[in-house]
Predict the 3D structure of the following.
Amino acid sequence: MAVRPVLRVPERVLSERARPVGEIDDSARALAVDLVDTMRASPACVGLAAPQIGVGLRAFAIDVTGHRKARSCHGEVVLFDPEILVCSDPVHGREGCMSVPDLTGDVARWTEVVVRGLTPDGEERVLQTDAFEARAVQHELDHLDGLLFLDRVSSAAAVFRRRMYR
């Protein structure tokens, strides 16, 4: 129930594989609220993983509502212990990250992803995502495995300084 600071590279938790959440208890539900509150307080943020707020657990929040590149949109979603069930062919697209605020990069991601996880209510949820929402899910899953988008770019030529808009 708080907006937490978003960690930036080279914070160690960002490069470590997150631990399973397991049972959804009050602590897990509080983490879900913090993820959503922090995501909402961060301009242009469409996803946030627990390691980005210093928690080494397998949990993330996403919401691509209103994003111009979104086709599928499940609204605000928090998943614990998520896993990919199905994926499709990859395409390259530009990504940024709050934990790497000065850079963007071209990353190959699957265009369709089916992901399963637990909700804050402890219910299993399966999402069929595509386009930008699928990219956001994969980006957050990478955080849970200790990876940043920089780990996925094909070369240094695929990394760019982030443009600043006013």
